[in-house]
Amino acid sequence: MIELRQLSKSYGSEKAVDGVSLDVPRGTITAIVGTSGSGKSTLLRLVNRLIVPDHGQVVIDGQDAARLPQADLRRRIGYVIQDNGLFPHWTAARNIGTVPRLLGWDAPRIASRVAELLELLQLQPQIASRYPHELSGGQAQRVGVARALAADPDVLLMDEPFGALDPVVRKRARQDLRALQQRIGTTILLVTHDMDEAIGLGDQIAVMRNGRIEQCDTPARILADPATPFVRDLVGEGQRAFRYLSIQTVASLRESGQIAGTALPPETPLSTALEQMLWTGCDMLPIAGGGVIRRDAILKAAQG
Ligand SMILES: Nc1ncnc2c1ncn2[C@@H]1O[C@H](COP(=O)(O)OP(=O)(O)OP(=O)(O)O)[C@@H](O)[C@H]1O
Q: CB of 230 within 8 A of CB of 209?
């Protein structure tokens, strides 16, 4: 668990981060969204003490981060930045081994950790000896994540980690991150300016504006009940209904009944079910395990 308590940081007269408090529960993903200049990156750097706050505290599992030795912080907090920040003259393996080397691990231990991480991130072993310019955008991004995970941190900070990827690779990278996080259970604090990314990845979303958090809530609540006009604008009034349907599953609107056809898995998003109904012209589809989903019920949920 990470607790941010009344964190503030000013540059001259400008408050980049202004009294931010936020709880990031262990093993969850918190997405920080907001417009450019709202203080997202500064907030992330306050967490790993790349920047020292003017006021406030970061508490990691009950310990004040300000009192932790640098080496401890490096081990416990991984950091991934846009464009992955790989060292261009180092191979992927050497990049991944950066933190373990700083921590003084011996060579065989580093090599075995690098091999383990390449496998975890689904990278071929031959990637190890390549230089960053010899990697695709998606591979470089995964090497960046592997490097951040090298010392098995409790917390992963990610600043626009998919910013440099094209939309197709980006979508895949997002899904991979979700799966990876579920597997290893790391606590992730992720900055993005992409609301779809925040909705798709976040267990909770913190919306920042002018250095402050305007709302911190689950994606469903941010969509259903934006706390301020700014949050409402950011979510995009016109897209709210569709986004809402994309995070609710057919299981949530299951009704009793029977109908022939290929059953939808219960975790199918309502948006997918609706698309299928509109495409095929039917008004009801079966759900695997029993019951049906009705078009009217989906449309009613979208309006609500
Ligand atoms: N080192 C610095 N010196 C002076 N001002 C800074 C510094 N770092 C950030 N700022 C200012 O603090 C504010 C917040 O910046 P920050 O980079 O945290 O915003 P952001 O939300 O991450 O923006 P973006 O999405 O564009 O990256 C901005 O107005 C920025 O100009």
A: yes
The DSSP element (H or E) to which 5 belongs, if any, is: strand 2-11
In short, whether 44's Cβ falls inside 6 Å of ligand 1 is: no
Answer with the residue of higher pLDDT: 215 or 172.
Answer: 215
Residue 301 CA to ligand 1 centre (angstroms) = 39
User: Same structural domain for residues 290 and 275?
Assistant: yes
**Are 155 and 60 members of one domain?**
yes
CATH of the domain at 137: 3.40.50.300
Q: Which of 137, 145, 190, 170 is nearest to 31 (CA)?
A: 190
| Number of domains present in the structure of the chain | 2
Query: For 232-263, how does the pLDDT look when each residue is reduced to its tens digit (9 = 90+)?
Result: 888 876 677 778 888 889 999 999 999 988 89
- Is residue 250 located within the same domain as residue 179? no
Amino acid 93 reads A
- Cβ of residue 200 lying under 6 Å from some atom of ligand 1: no
